[in-house]
Amino acid sequence: MLLLGAPLLVTVSPAEARPLSDRSFFGEWKNGAWVVGSRLSYTEPGLTAMQNAVKAGDHVMAKRRLLEYFRTRPPISAGTFSHPDWPGAVELTADHIWTLAGGEVYIDTLTVGPAETTVTTDVTSSVTGGRSGFFLMSRYKDAVVANFHSRSKGEGKPTLRLTFTDGSAKTLLPTDDTHIWAGHPGNVYGDKYLLRVADQGKGPFTAATSKAYLQFDLDGLPKVKKAELTLTGKADARKQVMLFGNGESFDEDTRTWNNTVQYTYSWQGDPDGFDWKQPAGADKEYYVQLPRFFFAGPLAAAYQRTGDEKHARALIGIMTDFIRDADAYDSDEGAGSYPNSLSVARRIQNWIPAYEILRKSPSLTPEANAEILKAFNRAGLHLQESTQGAPNWKQTQKVVLLHLAVYFPEFRVAGKWRADALGFLEGQLDDSTYPDGGYWEATDGYARGYASQYVDIALFMRQHGMEFSSATKAKLRKLARFLMDQTFPSGYNAMYGDSDTKDMRSTLRRLGELLGDQELIYVGTSGGSGRKPAHTSSLYPDTRVAVSRSGWHAQDSYLRLNIDRGNHSHPDELAVTVYAHGRPLLPDMGTFTYSQDPRAEWLRKSTEAHNTIEIDNKAQDSKAPGAITHMVTNPVFDRIGAHSEASAGALHERSILALHSGLWLVSDRLKPKSGGAHRYEQNWHFASDAEPSLRSGSKAAATAFGTGANITVVPADPGQVSASLRAGYHAPYMYQVQDAEYASYVKTVTGGATFDTLLLPSTGAADPSVTVERLPVSGATPFEATALNLNLGARGEGVYYKSWNRQASRSFGPYAYDGTMFYTETGAAGQTVVMVRGTSIECDGATLVKSPVEVPDLAVRVGTDGTVRIDGTGLTASTDRARAIAIAAPGATKVVLNGTQVPFTRDGALIYAAAVA
């Protein structure tokens, strides 16, 4: 669970817990008056019997009457669980075994005994869920040790048999397997014949605890229909071992207890149950996510579905254990706030619908009921006062406060809670979004959750006779549009900042339905309903994000450039994310975990882990000045210009030409802030299964996905860069990480430097013939202007020119041009000419395009069928040669201007059909 996950504040310690007295909760009546006020409202119908018991000083009877009241109270909408499903929750949580989020997902429990046993388990769901490894751990705390054969064993090795959708099959051996042992935390066991699994004693682990890990290589394999894991092992006595899917790659030669970030711990058999703290070696999120009760939904649903009291007893027992250990306070400060405000809100979010199910259970005693209600009341008082943390924290706190106010009108302060929550939520969008509608936190994962939660609370409010103002809905619509524009053409997120892979479509659809926005509905249903957005590309200057896209279909092309900042941002200024033909080709590499694991630190805190330039081996400061200076949008192309001061060593400028036909040209210029040599490293990252290679000579990097799209990254100056494929990491999902290679291009020079790079996607295998050759530019160095001759393989040939400043006409190759940017491409379908802020293009002295005045942007496509398509800003139909643009198109038979056919006249090889208004 990434969303709303990073802990920022810890307000109290469970060691400080002491119970809220019955006197403080129920009140005290003496001499015909209340000397201690109750936290309950005795004016509520049905509480008279309880009030009489309190006045009589009989708290035992008061608790009985209170439970009777809630058992018979009519149902009230309870909201929804944060997690209706949680693998292993029903089977394991009752025994105080818990796994954090998706790092390790419970599959099954295996049994071995004194005789060597081979067990085979269906692991299809784990493999098809993207997990290529497995993890073994004791089900019960006992003295029995289980040993499974490792890949080093001569016989009975672990195997993973895969059956593919085409009917073929393959059996794999592990690439790595080992175990870790708490009693020997620095030892490596990767070369051992046996994998040791054991656990005993109190607490989350002892010196006897050992866990086993296996990893398989699934890269490049066809789609899996069925997967079966076979293990051979034995134990001194009957032993049950839990099997989990694991999505984290590891090296058996280096893995130890000390360097393993762990997600699963067991307090099974410990009479004290969970201690609600972070076990040593656990992921950083463990101690905040466990108290959020993500397992409450599955346990409560199991009780509702089966009527089996064991599920109710388990959940009630864990709730009251938490109250005793961590939550019960009798003070105004810190009451109900463990371990932080966000965790309080998430816990109560899960407790309210759980209580709605549990309130009629015979397992709920009057004493337990009273303690749970006290905990609800304490939490509400805390959430009323607390507005801590980032926007998603504050939003969640007040959303849950409103749920408490609605669900518990019996609390005296419920009315104040309602007013406080509504007022805060009405105004929070002002504080959490930029004027252009972009979300303040630099992560699409958190933006998605934030927007989605506004939908949830708006629907909840509507159900209970409340409604957001039109101004709040208008701000929410701007945020929804921002979210839509960031989304890949496939409907999935671009995964920037602290985020992981999510399908955004249901969120966009729900936002569209709530707001009556047909374009949101269209994107949220992949075009199944609604209305196609009128725009493609978008610029968010305040948020400092630009997105170039060719359309809204899954096969369209997409590029995102950011200089964003804010909570959960990465040092990735001027980084790009590229998608084409149904696949992210230059993805953001993800987050993995908030723990201080070296891989996670690299992903989240290094500039090297992103598709930008790292200067002098130092991470950027994402809070530094920067801006997207311009974005030119045209139906054929986009041009984006930006700069950032995030690197102390130099000013980084990046200019991008994005052709909607699926081609990008990236020009970088580095202006050092001091003398001496500087190291500039431009990096391009690929998915873990991309199988990239680096070609000699051109030093082009190309991916080799087994099916579907690929990309070729071609530098303009292969002789001036040191090129290599370097080892990195890819974490498409939180708590899952795989090894991945990336292309690194390094220049170490005194003074400034430039990089010019072609990014060329292909629908199938990458074309090995693609090359880039620099063309000299008259009167200019590459630091002032760049020109490239492009061999695009089967696509054709192209020429690209970009000037970093305004100037008179310059020559490069056969061309002369007086504008800031020019591109031409010739292929089987004809010729394309693109220009920005220019008037005249000549080729070998002949006019290609000539305008009487400067054109802001212009794209001309001359088809082999005689159709000429002209697109540009501010163009009008005109055949007046004194005003119209001359275009070389000797074979023209039809002209289409900005989508509408228009007349044209001819003068030799030139035609006239459009003019700048």
Automatic annotation (TrEMBL):
Domain Carbohydrate-binding module family: start-end pairs: 170-264
Domain of life: Bacteria
The keyword Signal appears for this protein: yes
Ranges of residues in domain Heparinase II/III-like C-terminal: 566-722
Transmembrane stretches, start-end: none
Matches recorded under InterPro entries: CBM96, Hepar_II_III_C, Hepar_II_III_N
Primary location recorded for the protein, binned into one broad class: secreted
Pfam families with a match to the protein in the record: CBM96, Hepar_II_III_C, Hepar_II_III_N
Record has Lyase as a keyword: yes
Name of the protein: Heparinase II/III family protein
